[in-house]
Amino acid sequence: MSKKQDIMAATLDLIHEEGLQSVTFAKLFKRASVGAGTIYNYFANKEELVNAVYREARKSMGEFLLTNYDPEASLYERFKRLQLNRLEFGIRHPKEFLFIDSFSFSPYISPELRDTGDPNASSEVVLALIVEGQKQGVVKEMDSHLCHQLMHGIISSILKGYYVQKYPLSEVQIQQVLEASWKAVLV
C-alpha cells in the first residue's frame, strides 16, 4: 500500500472505532506510521481526507454492486443480484459499508461528492432498473431515488443487526431478505 492508502485506511479504521469527531491528525500519524508532513502532502485538511475516504469507499461499493450483474437478465433477477451484492459488500467490507451509510447525508461530505456517482455508474443502473420496473407496472410508482433509498435501507438495517450478532445470515435468511426487499417495492 502507498502512504496515501495507508493514511486513508487508518482514517477509516479510526472512524469505525472511535467516530469521526475523535479522529485527529496526531492519531492518524501514529496509526498510519507516517510523519506529520506526510498527510499534508496528500490532504490539506481533515475534511478533504474524509471526502477522499468516502470517494474510495463509494467506488469500491459501486464496483462490487455490479459484480456478475447481467443487464439481459429478468427484472427480478437483476434486482436480486443488486441487493445480494449490496448485502455481500456489507458483509465483506463492514467498515466501508457503515462509513458510506453513516456519512452519505452528512454535511462533512461535500454536496458535489455526495451527488457524484461512482465511476461504474452503479446508482444509475439501480435507478434505471427501478424506472424500468415502474414502466412495466411491477415496481411502485414513487420517486426513483426514494425507491433506491428504500432498497438500500432494508439491506442496511439487516446488516446492522448482523454486525452486532443479533442474528446470523444463513443462505436461507439471505434469500428471505432478498424476497422481502423485492416485495417491498412491488406494486
What is the arithmetic mean of pLDDT? Answer: 93
The run of helices and strands is: HHHHHHHHHH
* Proportion of residues in extended strands: under 5%
**Whole-angstrom Rg:** 18 Å
Count of helical regions:
10
Secondary-structure class: mainly alpha
Rough outline:
elongated
Runs with pLDDT <50, length 5+?
none
- How many beta-strand segments? 0
Distance between the termini: 48 Å
State the share of residues found in helices, binned by percent.
Answer: over 70%
Q: How would you describe this structure to a colleague?
A:
- The protein has 187 residues and is mostly helical.
- It has ten helices and no strands.
- It has helices spanning 3-18, 25-32, 36-42, 46-65, 75-92, 94-103, 111-115, 122-135, 144-163, 171-185.
- Helix 1 (3-18) crosses helix 2 (25-32).
- The radius of gyration is 18 Å and the shape is elongated.
- 27% of the residues are buried.
